[in-house]
Amino acid sequence: MTENIIDLKQITVDFKDGENRVKAVNDVDLQVEKGDIYGIVGYSGAGKSTLVRVVNLLQKPTAGKVIVNNQELLKLNPVDLRKARTKIGMIFQHFNLMKSRTILGNVEYPLLKTKLTKKQREEKATELLKLVGLASRKDDYPRQLSGGQKQRVAIARALANNPDILISDEATSALDPKTTLSILNLLKRLNRELGLTIVLITHEMQAVKEICNHVAVMQKGKIVERGNIEAIFSTPQKPLTQEFINVATNVGPAVEKVVKNPSFKALTQNQQLVQLNFIGKSTEEPIISTLAKQFGVDGNILFANVEQLHDETLGFMILVLTGQEERIKQAITFLQENQVRVKLLNQAVESEANG
Amino acid sequence: MASWIPNVIHMQSEFIQATWETVYMTLVSAVIAGVLGLATGILLITSQPGGILEDSFLYGLLDKIVNLLRSIPFIILLAVIAPFTRYLVGTTIGTTAALVPLIIGIFPFYARQIQNALTEIDPGVIEAAQASGSSPLEIIFHVYLREGLPDIIRASILTIISLIGLTTMAGAIGSGGLGDIAISIGYARFENDVTIVAMIIILVMVFIVQFAGDWLAKRLEH
Questions:
Q1: CA of B134: which chain A residue's CA is closest?
Q2: What residues 140-199 of chain A have any CB closer than 8 A to a CB of chain B?
Q3: Looking at the complex, does the CB of residue B125 fall below 8 Å from at least one CB of chain A?
Q4: Structure pTM?
Q5: B216 pLDDT above the threshold of 80
Q6: Do B132 and A141 touch (CB under 8 A)?
Q7: Which of A148, A168, B136, B151 is deepest in the core (most CB within 10 A)?
Q8: How many domains does chain A have?
């Protein structure tokens, strides 16, 4: 078993909202292994930002234990807590760079309190800027940079004290898709090259899909589902998780379109609209042609998508199966036996027609 | 020339003396009230709800003191604190005695200006500094005072200009300076040219402060 670098135990965070007390985070446990990239997904207001701020005690929990790097942070005095914080880098949605300092000055800032000389600080900051690909801009000011460049500077700053952990608080939410991807790739590279543990919170499952090994889904202050990324994507248990994955894989919008399409309102008894989820090995087998050959059931593909997650392949497909009613049932059983998850969509079409 | 300023022409040394007194009162009270006001403004911003040194008692206390002192009209403040001034300086007449009411009159104004200037700083930047392990003192000196510098300079210009105005009011109780000459000679003896020249000198001082401050603030902004 690998070591847990972050171990949050029974964390509760209360906020006063006028007369009421609102539980932003409600009795949550979270363990992150050293070297992992851990995603926390949820809609805004789910409590993910609050939870992640507990890791460096920017947010003090009302109850619970915070163990980071084998230190119980709530028991540290202010000086030791600040020392511990230097080992937990953090990046933000709005970058939070100082506009009065140059790019180099911003990256140097966390080093001001160290024993390094001015020259050593500059060398270290320049080296970090090289790492994020912005060394040539070191004398510019933040307002001269684009969003993606600002986030790179923020990443360099977060790495100044050689942290073990990097917390990314919606760091890509203000960026366009292409820039998002380049920032995520940078994080992945830092994880690989520096052994950096990354906790990434986001409302986009796409970002998680890109780089995370583990993911937790939060709703109303609770983690409703968690696990490794392949398991969550292939067999999500909770409706919310399913919703996030449908958006990330485009299956959600596709199903909606198909269900609303008038031509599928008149499905006969010999037709069945199905959604198939393939996992791993089953993606490599010629399943559709087997259906035709073995059961005399034709499959008409309306939508298909294949996702590559690390070593696992996930396939999503929406089909109209046409054949004898009995044979279709047999075909579906055959699919299920081959680790294909089958969801019947006829009912959804009917309810759409009636509604 | 003599027909334009018949009285001033015989008062050159008095005008030089009075200008110097005004500059002295403005500078000394600006420095002392500046330190007091800056400290109070920083305490207000850091002790306020959600601040880096949140302390609702201290914040409430400072907030009330500042509001109270700002509510007293300066001309009344001069009279009200006269016993305190006598206790501190030994007299209530002259430029040094005028420093006491000037400082008490202007520092709450400056504190509020500083608080407003520092409120403009993005809380995210403060949070980033906290996350990187900065102590409250480091955040005050390396983040608040640095990020807020252009606005602090603007607040300072405004305060110094107000202060020049207040020094002339202190003239009413015999502080010396250009206000004193304008009132006790120009106004009381109907020597209008004295009043007008005193005013022109004050306007020149205000323009110099405004110009220098604007130039500095602009230079520091990125």
A1: A82
A2: 141-143, 154, 157-158, 160-161, 167
A3: yes
A4: 0.86
A5: yes
A6: no
A7: A168
A8: 2
Q: Cβ contact (<8 Å) for A158 and B147?
A: no
Q: What does the pLDDT look like over B124-168, one tens digit per residue?
A: 999 999 999 999 999 999 999 999 999 999 999 999 999 999 999
Contact residues, chain A, for B142 at CB < 8 Å: 109, 112
Which CATH number describes the domain made up of B8-221? 1.10.3720.10
pLDDT in tens, B176-198: 899 999 988 888 889 889 999 99
Question: CA A114 to CA A110: how far, in whole Å?
Answer: 8
User: Is the same domain home to A194 and A78?
Assistant: yes
* Pair A64, A197 in one domain: yes
Domain that holds residue A8: 4-235
Give pLDDT, residue B122.
95
Same domain? For A80 and A193 the reply is: yes
List, for residues A129-169, the tens digit of each pLDDT value.
Answer: 999 999 999 999 999 999 999 999 999 999 999 999 999 99
Q: Is A69 left (phi over 0), alpha (psi -120 to 50) or beta?
A: left
- Give how far the C-alpha of residue A179 lies from the chain's centroid of Cα atoms, to the nearest Å: 16
Q: Using alpha carbons, list the distances in angstroms from residue A258 to A63, A273, A348.
A: 48, 9, 10
- Asked if the structure places residue A254 within a domain, the reply is yes
Rg (C-alpha) for chain B, rounded Å, is 20
- CATH code (residue A266): 3.30.70.260
Say if A241 falls within a structural domain: no
Residue A242 counted as domain residue: no
For residue B207 the two structure tokens come to 């323009």
Question: How near does any CA of chain B get to the CA of A203, in Å?
Answer: 20
